[in-house]
Design a protein that fits this description.
Chains A, B: GO terms for molecular function: DNA-binding transcription factor activity; transcription cis-regulatory region binding. 2 copies of one chain form a homodimer. By secondary structure, chain A is an all-alpha fold. Helix content of chain A is 63%, strand content 0%.
Amino acid sequence: MSTKSTPVKRRPGGRSARVQDAVYSAVGELMATKRPDQITVPMVAELAGVNPTSVYRRWGDVDALLEEVAVAVFTREDEKLPDTGSLSGDLGAWAGSIAEDIVRPHRTRYLRAMVNARDGVLASGCPCWNARREQLAEMISRARTRGEEAPSVEQVLDHVIAPLYHHVVFAMPIDRTYAERLVADVLSMRQRERV
Amino acid sequence: MSTKSTPVKRRPGGRSARVQDAVYSAVGELMATKRPDQITVPMVAELAGVNPTSVYRRWGDVDALLEEVAVAVFTREDEKLPDTGSLSGDLGAWAGSIAEDIVRPHRTRYLRAMVNARDGVLASGCPCWNARREQLAEMISRARTRGEEAPSVEQVLDHVIAPLYHHVVFAMPIDRTYAERLVADVLSMRQRERV
């Protein structure tokens, strides 16, 4: 049983936890070879060895399930924030490792699954930004404590994270160098009035 | 028969053109109410009044068809570039109208269809960027002729178009004000060494 995907919701105990682990693992296995729109609840249930009804009851539909797993994958707690002594160093290392992470095929599939799940959802925001926002707030606050000029959290989200995610979901090439160029751009920007 | 979607490929004549028009219109109608992954070739063929075999023969599969229509929709020739006398005015008006355009539900669905169609496509780029690249090159070249400082085309694509598309496919809110803020950010950036 994999413990790599830390659930976003409070972890349920006992049988419920075992069902969740099995279902999350099944989704992970299916995502390794299939597109999100080819994955169905019966498929997940069979691979997880649970009753499809339990999956429907708990997650509603396959989109909600895929999104929950995607969010869990993108908000793991085991990421260590870089602390290089400069904001430029921190953001470069952070953005570079995000770029290398999201081009891995199953990560790209998770991002596309989130895009799919967004259909019919009106401007609710993307839950995977919350983790990024917290990480940025910490790096930027450290930089300001050191007396460095720093862009706002929203500027880095808009000008580093958004282009990286955009490129990956639309299959445009990205690498560490591209991520570092985005960081250099945002560090050369005028700060927005309200940060 | 709609002539709103100008095909990207050279327009075929006669029967072939009628099939294409009918199929494009059918896709447009279906996209108004359905998610891309709910649309099938037989569905399109029935609505277009053509044989599914003709659709498979010409487009291969439904993803290729949806993408071709999406590209056609996003590269219409009837967009007039703003010419306000300043790059800031031009980019603000241009980005603002793109923002207003892509939040319309069927446009958002086309963008998501392109994300879907990208699966299995390795870093091939997004065909809808080509039209944007040409529009930008023109506005930036006019600005430089006037003696204005200007960011590179790639900087505007990365820092204005990418965040707008990103927000729309992930269902995060955008409006004209957000687009203008992105433009102000990119205009305050240091130019990249190689433009």
